[in-house]
Amino acid sequence: MEWMMDMLKKKVVISTLSASLLCTGLLPVGLPTDDVSGRVYAETAAALPSDITDRMRKIRDAMTPEERQRITDAQDRADEIRKDLTKHKDLVTEIWNKVDAKLKQTADPNLELTQEDILFFVLAFSVQYDPNGKSMEEVLGEERAREIAEKLIKLGGFPGGLEDVAINDVSQLINKGQSNMIERFRQMPMNELLGIVANPDRAETILVQEIDKLINDPGLAFGKVLKNINVTGTDVVAVFKRLIPKFDPQRRAMAAWVTALIRVEGLGAGTPDKPRRRGGSGGVFNPPANAGIYTGSLPVEAVKLSKGTMDGKSVTFADVDEAQLKAYLDSIISGQADKLIQLAFSETEPTLKLRLPAAALTAAVQSGAVFHSTVHGLSFTVPISIFAGLDLSAGSTVVITLSQVTDAVKQQVQQSADQVDADVVASPAEFSVSMQDENGNSTVVGSYKGSYLQRGLPVTGQIDPNKATGVWFNEGTGKLSFIPATFGTRSAGSTVGTLHSPHDSIYTIVQSDKTFKDIAGHWAKTDVETMASKLIVDGVAPDEFAPDSPLTRAQFVALLVRSLALVEQPYQAGFSDVDSTDWHSTAIQTAVTAGLIEGFEDGTFRPDDSVTREQLAVLISRALKAAGGDTPTTAAGALERFADRDTISPWAENSVQQTVQIGLFNGQSDNSFAPQGDTTRAQGAVTLKRLLQYLKFMN
């Protein structure tokens, strides 16, 4: 009997998720509740069965603040598309082709519409509602939007425009479509549901059928408009398949609707001949452990959740089924699935450990697949390629960890930030990737073969990207060190920092405002302040930077290692003029290991010599390669403007060409490069800032 219960639960989970992803995911709207020009909402609502409107209101009301925020984030990204409609107009090609063909058939000169107009209109009706419910009047408050609606309705055979077809008729069409889809999936037999999950094309066919039904429904006025313009369900689905990844790339808004729907609808034992009852206790089951907690690329039943403790921390373990993971990776290899494998979790313990059976990864290490895990506002992006060469035998497990830190660690991080006059603007978090053998012994992967894995941290309040930075916390030394980070605003007051790191650690984001008295009026003032605020460059004294003083080879290597967020290593390089007790020895060793420096033929490094401009170009070029940056083929003409180009040393010529060509390095003047000239401290800081921006490691 128990296995039957599990099957029934699975059936309803799949049906609910499928309906939600296909239906509410495409049109994640709320309910308009206010009066609208032409008609009042009550007229539209009256045309819908009460259970439809009640259901949509309940789903909206059941959303948590975080889920509502996800909808808001999608709206914000849609707004970004609206800022440059011409750039994105191809998103609505299929619908525009039908509108354009209809326009060419009409003789009315007042019905002028553009492809940008259609994109504007589609965006308005697909994501411009908020979960609390905006009226159509609010959505179409702009004059342009109302003009587009008026023209489309007239083009669709209603000369009176908004007098004949009220905007609320669109809401009627959307809400009825959502309800129809949910009920259709609920009534399907189990084998048919599983077939849909395994075959996305079948799911798409069903969605096309349902949209075509709405378009051909004589009771839906806006359906008649679309039909008269010859827009089909296929056209609509094609547009939204292209549009959704733009405003909901991680399907977070979609997941918000799924989880809210599960909470409202409950999970029942409906069958084709005996639909489940709404309300009461009969035929209703509690959702499985991960329903509403896990959403993502893999089926809900592919991820099993459990709770426990480890190292004194409460942990949620998410174990992925080997067969289903391998099947999904095989679909990526064959080009039938997205390479970004999304795994989103909510309502977990402070620490999440995602456990992947290593054997399932073996054939996919060169596939380009990427695991993107999110929990507690944190995100961790792990390319599967980092596991190449590791033991992926049966019984081994890859463990991806995202963890909130303890209050004690938070206090230590705060104390370290105070020491460098910085404010902590994100809750510290720990990220790691490890391998676990069949006996449970763990080994930290640690080195990512030069890859910079992305970690996302939510920022509290507003920050200045020029003064904020990611940092990693060394528990052994209590020191904060620079981590490359870029910042983006998801919505008003909601900013996320994306940290790029080649190693695992505890991370946070800090902000400071540093300057020096002797850079006032200096050409490099702004860049020096930015690099100092990000904890990359220091002064020669608390208020003094000495911007025009020569930069030594040891000083620049230390800055370069710091800029690339490399962990310094004990010295063993063996340069005759570098001792392990020298302040720069560990930075030099790290640079040697990373392939950034080699030293001179006589076995020296000459740490106190000034770094020349051509030496700097070579170091920057090697750093660009080590960090995985684009290294375009050099163009011989890049140095034509420099009269002294023939004095560039042969071993440096290619690097100078490359750095000049991509804008990392300029000449000493318009027609002089001065390859053997000294590099100043200001020039070094500016060049490193350009490098980080070119790598997209800094805004």
UniProtKB/TrEMBL annotation:
It holds the Pfam family SLH. Residues 511-570, 571-634, 639-699 form the SLH domain. PANTHER family: OUTER MEMBRANE PROTEIN ALPHA-RELATED, S-LAYER PROTEIN _ PEPTIDOGLYCAN ENDO-BETA-N-ACETYLGLUCOSAMINIDASE. It comes from Paenibacillus xerothermodurans. It comes from the Bacteria. This is S-layer homology domain-containing protein.
